[in-house]
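The data layer described in this paper is built around a simple, fixed record for each protein. We quote a single record here, exactly as it is kept in our systems:
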Amino acid sequence: MAALKIAFAVESFFPEHSAGTEVYILDLSRYLMKIGTGLGLISTFCAQKVGDESIYTYEANPNLEPVIEKTYSINNVSPHHTTAIISTKESKTNFYIEPVDIWASSVMKHSNTALPVELNSLDINKIIKTVNPSYLIMDIEGYEYELLPHIDWENIRKIQVEIHTKFLGPDKTNEIIQTLDTQGFNMHSEYSREEQYYFHKR
């Protein structure tokens, strides 16, 4: 029953939700790479718009895998999906699963009740070289601060990142924005709202 509700959400979620502005990039993007699949809603929406073969998505939380698969199945999409941590190197890395607020689960430990699980991590720059995305979406609960400065941007032209100021604070949030500006990305204020930020290569 829960999966069925998710299936309906894919059709109705985006017109009113701030995340719906993902559509702004689809006309110009060849391949889309999403780090932090969540329930699979955004990757489903994008796959419906541009096709399965253009979407590569990654989720670290293994507990979400059955939900993601069900979301894709009900909505008749099959984007490229991998369960793994995306990091700066290939290794074993602790991922902290929050038992109450599952959306706060992260490579970063946000509470004393978080449950550690050791998972495989993949090198983000190796993936970028293989996939060659033109658009990057990232929602990784504060770990964006550690990951973004190490990315080789290659042919990425557009970025949407959820910057988790509640975990990072305003100084680190501004530092992320400055890092992307230094790498040649302008922030689009008309699409950015709350913690969702959109950037385009100058």
In short: The radius of gyration is 16 Å. Strands lie at 32-35, 55-59, 80-83, 85-87, 91-97, 115-123, 135-138, 158-162, 185-187, 196-201. The first helix runs from residue 2 to 12.
